[in-house]
Design brief:
This protein is an alpha+beta fold. Among the domains are: 33 residues; 128 residues, Protein of unknown function DUF881 (Alpha-Beta Plaits). It has six helices and eight strands; from the N terminus they run αααβαββββββααβ. The protein has a five-stranded antiparallel sheet, covered by helices on one side. It has a three-stranded antiparallel sheet with strand order 4-5-6. β4 and β5 form a beta hairpin. The longest helix is centred in the N-terminal third of the chain and has 37 residues. The relative contact order is 0.16.
């Protein structure tokens, strides 16, 4: 009877495991790999759609220029609005800030506690701190990686990856701004959030690099400019 009970219990465990797994291996990470592959695929697809949108916008601009019934004053105002909105290319002196995770074998500098996992990676607030400081320093335009920021852009991180306007990026992260280099550098130095980040650079080896440019060109934003917002339910 004891043997029969053991076999019955084992059978129950096997059935439960089968129903939970639905015929898949419970110990595999295949589902996680499929998810990461899906994210990467969507990111590439969004990049392709961005390029298509940019090409169509150039065609529309070319057609509009051929049949332009506006006055010079109106054209000037339109150019100013495009520059403010970030949809037009902008160029001038500027700088690039590069943030990176600490090396895999990072150790604490003398006098600092041993690092936790979160101490060794770039976080959303680190990227936001740099972007905010550059705006504070009078940047005429900013791009993160290869994308121009506009008023509705959101710099967000999920895990150890940056998600910006439908595309996914991994560190190192590059933030480039056009503007007065002296004012931009001062804004970076004066930012309390960046001062805190620089402590982690010193303690655990997080990446921090500032490259100045005599001339740099930022592309115009080429994605959708539609604003989506919540509406109250009546």
């Amino acid at each position: 009877m004891l043997t029969a009970a053991v076999f019955a219990l084992a059978g129950l465990i096997f059935v439960t495991s089968f129903n939970t797994a639905k015929g898949t291996n419970l110990r595999t990470d295949a589902s996680l790999l499929r998810l990461s592959d899906l994210i990467e695929e969507r990111s590439h697809k969004n990049a392709g759609l961005d390029e298509t949108t940019a090409a169509l916008r150039r065609q529309v601009d070319a057609l509009a220029a051929r049949d332009d019934g506006s006055t010079e004053a109106q054209d000037e105002r339109l150019r100013a609005l495009e520059a403010s909105a970030g949809t037009a290319e902008t160029a001038g002196p500027g700088l690039t800030v590069t943030l990176d995770d600490a090396p895999p074998n990072a150790q604490a500098a003398p006098g600092y506690p041993e690092p936790q996992a979160n101490d060794l990676v770039i976080h959303q607030q680190d990227l936001q701190a740099v972007v905010n400081a550059l705006w504070q320093g009078g940047a005429k335009g900013i791009k993160v990686m290869d994308q121009r920021l506009i008023s509705t852009s959101a710099v967000r991180c999920v895990g150890n990856t940056l998600i910006l306007q439908g595309r996914v990026y991994s560190p190192p992260y590059k933030i480039t701004a056009v503007g007065d280099r002296g004012k931009l550098n001062k804004a970076l130095a004066d930012s309390p959030a960046i001062q805190n980040y620089r402590l982690y650079v010193k303690a655990y080896g997080l990446g921090w690099k500032v490259d100045e440019h005599k001339a740099v060109t930022l592309p115009g934003y080429s994605g959708t400019v539609d604003l989506h917002y919540a509406k109250p339910v009546s």
